[in-house]
């Protein structure tokens, strides 16, 4: 299995080449948008390998075979630190992993590390996820560090779309857009659900009868419906909405200033499924939010 497998396909050749070139003069803050969440994380770790591997490969990138590359890919390298604003303090304390919560204790520890030299000969790389959903004092304290240039450290912001982040963060970042998932592909099996959700957004009717049916909706199907919503909103926000897709038409009716907030709601719904919240309740709550937003337009 290749390292950084989620970005190992030819679709990501350009992204890898850009990262190779940037490694010669790393930006203080790199913003990775687009792609899927696993692809953004893989790209961020690949970038960490670019600035830490001491045995560059033939194309100027990391060698992908040394202990440094393997440790970074596994999330185990001491100079690659990751924080996620969506992880709760309780989960972080009970199950500390390679990606930590964005809380004051962890940030104090990080800021102390930033004052010290990296363990290896490369750079310390700090990955930041879920920043758009975390407005805590810890997040604010960490974001201030982005304004303090460091020759031995750099930061990577990960977000589905740069519009989800504060403009001041985006303005300080070098933005790199990963290949978007095939937003035009549609699963015929999801069409009845997309139509029902679109009808509910515009009229407040027709969805709960479907979600209330016995064994009609499991977590896997709910996840697919949420992915369809994200693809549809991506088309709408880029001006490429499909007039033949009822969901595109319904989401296009939402106020422009509310569409980024809807992206947050899609992410929150995905997280709720991950915490085993009943799929029907997750979809119903999301649909209610979208309908209220539509009616308030």
From TrEMBL:
- Pfam families, alphabetized: DNA_pol3_delta2
Name the record gives this protein: DNA polymerase III subunit delta
């Amino acid at each position: 299995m290749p390292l950084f497998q989620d970005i190992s396909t030819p679709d990501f050749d350009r992204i890898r080449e850009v990262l190779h070139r940037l490694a010669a003069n790393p930006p203080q803050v790199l913003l990775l948008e687009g792609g899927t969440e696993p692809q953004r994380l893989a790209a961020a770790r690949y970038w960490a390998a670019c600035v830490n591997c001491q045995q560059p490969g033939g194309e100027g990138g990391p060698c992908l075979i040394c202990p440094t590359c393997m440790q970074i890919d596994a999330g185990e390298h001491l100079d690659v630190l990751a924080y996620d604003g969506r992880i709760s303090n309780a989960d972080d304390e009970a199950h500390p992993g390679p990606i930590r919560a964005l809380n004051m204790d962890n940030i104090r520890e990080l800021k102390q590390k930033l004052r010290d030299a990296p363990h290896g000969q490369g750079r310390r790389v700090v990955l930041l996820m879920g920043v758009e959903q975390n407005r805590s004092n810890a997040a604010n304290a960490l974001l201030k560090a982005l304004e303090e240039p460091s020759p031995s450290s750099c930061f990577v912001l990960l977000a589905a779309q740069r519009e989800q982040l504060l403009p001041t963060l985006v303005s300080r970042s070098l933005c790199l857009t990963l290949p978007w998932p095939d937003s035009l592909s549609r699963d015929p099996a999801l069409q009845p659900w997309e139509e029902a959700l679109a009808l509910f957004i515009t009229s407040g009717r027709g969805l709960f009868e479907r979600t209330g049916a016995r064994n009609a909706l499991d977590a896997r199907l709910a996840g697919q419906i949420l992915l369809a919503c994200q693809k549809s909103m991506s088309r709408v926000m880029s001006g490429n909405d499909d007039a033949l897709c009822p969901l595109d038409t319904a989401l296009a009716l939402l106020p422009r200033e509310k569409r980024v907030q809807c992206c947050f709601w899609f992410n929150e719904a995905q997280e709720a499924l991950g915490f085993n919240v009943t799929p029907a309740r997750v979809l119903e709550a999301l649909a209610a939010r979208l309908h209220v937003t539509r009616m308030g337009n």
